[in-house]
Amino acid sequence: MPSFTVFRGSKEGPKQDQTSKPDQLTGTQVFVKVTASGLCGTDLHYLAADVVLGHEGVGVVQDVGPDVQNLKKGDRVGWGYVHGACGACEQCIKGEDVFCAQRRLYGFDDTEQGSFAHGAVWPESHLHPIPDSMTDEVAAPLQCAGATVFTPLHDVRADETVGVIGVGGLGHLAIQFAAKMGCRVVVLSGSESKKDDAHRLGATEFIAMNKRDENTKPTPIDRLLVTTSALPDWDVIMPWMAPKGTIYPLTVSQDALKIPAMPLLLSGVAVQGSLVATRTVHREMLRFAGLHGIAPWTETFPMTVEGIQKATDALNNGKVRFRAVLLPQ
């Protein structure tokens, strides 16, 4: 069996290992040569786990199984956090495969495959075509970060006001998507340090939360994307929401979501959970990003043990501006 290099988590930190590709692929299996991988905050949770790391993968198809229908050798594809579903349950039939009870998720399933690797084997159903206009370095972070922020925006109207809390790995992409969709974009950030960045990305209004006072009143927000690791002060945020507005908490947090009840009730504000994109929305996101030139701001690192350690340390310390991308050596 041919083998290829993978990088997995361990209690001692990331380590290099080998895994095998089957001599003969079966069913709809596709073997992909990895050309770039994004580093996501979710990866930090698995650095000490015995799994192959990474879930923002981009690569080139090298081989396909006998039942593959659309992909062929040489095609550029990407994959993200969800890499499998049953295809037959109610959620799958409705196109909501990310909520399938048998969904296969990074860190939980198929832990011998990942994007911190020189290759990976995935089902055709969860590999997404990469637009020709998009480089691998640009495409990789879109597989999770892009999919995460595009999901609550994909059906937005151009006359809506979108609020984005945080100008970081998720937030800087959310600003770009919302701006290219024609929306007014209100950015809420801890200080003025990223004000220029926010306006370059497409922000219409910018509020530095450490400078706000009782007279600070943004345009009422129809959709609010919370992209920061810490939850905001809801007593401050709720009066800024438009009637019938929706709040989308997007980052992973174990903290309780405590929102004052009366502003929620009196203004009909909704709080909507959101995971990553369904396959349909994921591919729509890639096409939209390719058409409108939406691109993450990236820093590249070599895909080596040392490079992965350096990248994860930088991300842990808040030093990445704004997405790290690992490139196989």
Automatic annotation (TrEMBL):
Q: Which residues form the Enoyl reductase (ER) domain?
A: 9-271
- PROSITE patterns noted in UniProt: ADH_ZINC
Instruction: Give residue spans, biased composition: Basic and acidic residues.
Output: 9-20
Cofactor (UniProt): Zn(2+)
Does this entry carry the keyword Protease?
Answer: no
InterPro entries the record matches: ADH-like_C, ADH-like_N, ADH_Zn_CS, CAD-like, ER, GroES-like_sf, NAD(P)-bd_dom_sf
* Positions of region (Disordered): 1-23
What's the domain of life for this entry?
Answer: Eukaryota
Q: Which UniProt keywords apply?
A: Metal-binding, Oxidoreductase, Zinc
From the UniProt record, which GO molecular function terms apply?
A: oxidoreductase activity, acting on the CH-OH group of donors, NAD or NADP as acceptor; zinc ion binding
Report the sequence similarity comment from the record.
Answer: Belongs to the zinc-containing alcohol dehydrogenase family.
Matching entries from PANTHER family are given as: ALDEHYDE REDUCTASE (PTHR42683)
Name of the protein described by the UniProt record: Chaperonin 10-like protein
